Amino acid sequence: MRQQDSGRLFWVSYADLMTALFIITLALFVFAYKMFKVKQLDLEETATELRVRSLELDKQSLALEELKRRLSEEEMMASTLIQELNDERARLLVMEEEYKKLKEIEEAIKRLDPKYFVYQPAYKRHVLRSQVQFAKGQSAINASYKDMLLNAGKALERLVDSLERDDNIKYLLVIEGMASRDAYTRNYELSYERALALWRLWDEQGIEFDPNRCEVIISGSGTGGVGRDLQVERNNQRFLIQIIPKIGELKTIDFRKKPDGETEEGPAAEDAGEFENLDP
To answer: What topology does CATH give the domain 114-279?
Structure first.
């Protein structure tokens, strides 16, 4: 009887032990499952955070690339600007040298023989010291003036020949005629014809100005222009001479000949050439 009780008691204890183990195992499983879920949520949150950070890094990477591109462009712009500044500085230095040279030439031009010419600084031009008078409506130069005018032309030729010889410096020689106010209706044409007569007088006597260095312009201001004698109107029958230095290339033509070799006459034939790309 005791042996049976003892066996029953063993199995009861064993069942209780197994039940207890099951309960413990179940509890551990539930705990472990909860911990797994917590960890899983943590991992999902971490993964989400990593994705967000990855997107932010991508944005930052794109922004960095854009910044690099802009920096590269600005560096190129800065380099270009520096080059342009250096070019401009070099250009200004050249202009400064040209300006100094032009001022030296202008000073030399002022020294045109004062025996025959008077310099007018206000207009940067010369006038013949001796007055040349013409008959009304006439452009022919009186023989009494020719020796003086020839000497003046030779003085002008010597001055032009003595000026700076530089392939980049050319000259405009303007021979301008003026007329006095009277009842004559062709004073503008007449002033041109008188200047043309003076140039032809010089040309006929071998007074020449190198066309590769000097362009001769024949002009007439009629009864207009500046620096006129307001006291004695007849004194405005005069010749004006301007020598204008220019920077640039001079292309010239022989305006005295047609293509077939014939001599060209008339005002339109007096354009001695043209300046190209000139800076004043």
So the answer is: 60s Ribosomal Protein L30; Chain: A; (3.30.1330)
